[in-house]
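Sequence and structure are kept together here, with a separate record for every protein. A complete record is shown below as an example:
=====
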Amino acid sequence: MALLAAGDQPWKNKQIAEWNEDDARQVLSDSPWAKTVTPTIDRSANGGQRRSGGGMGRGGGIGMGGIGIGLPGMGGMGRRGGMGGGGYPGGGYPGGGRTQGPDDGTGPGYGQPPALTLRWESALPVREAELKTRETGAPTVDESHYAIAVYGVPGRMLNSDSRNPADQLKKQAAIKREGKKDMKPSSVEVLQREDGPVILYLFPRSQEITKQDNRIEFNAHVGRLQFSQTFFVADMVYQSKLEL
């Protein structure tokens, strides 16, 4: 199985200067630093009053409550992989137009929510892959923070109900580690790109993640979307150095 994994990730045994564009695109889409997750939708009536919580679950699952939030003027398209709600027939998701329910893309007339891409923007391999693929709109991250970006959130999910959307997003996100206090973001940025909003979560490196943490989970709510993803720390080592 180890040989198969190495064969599936040819970039891992190369120096960054030797990567071709296919290597770089794999790092950005399907690698230890980039995962695709399909969120669930919180349809509860009091979802707007809940906050994230719960311990680490098996297979990356974490029980979480939902909060309805909003962002003014976010109906358009942002940087990469994201689609605004207007991009679907009837303003909903593929699989059917909206028939009833809230006008945020979560009513019962919608199909499955879109897949989201979670990416460790602060990791050196990701930054170098963005340069290799000429992603000039990549988020800027300072060296004092870990940064996780979420791509693919439909603009319709970000309604105009909240005056402080970044504060709401901060309350609903965490990095969880076994036996340690949850890491909460110090700040959240919502970046408007041409093909959809990008949400950037910044965590202070003063709460260091080490190889001993083994596995970590990022979980968050965005509007009524709720999702979590496990990352295995041992896989996030490149050229003998932990890259986060």
About this structure: Confidence is low (pLDDT under 50) at residues 1-6, 45-55, 57-109.
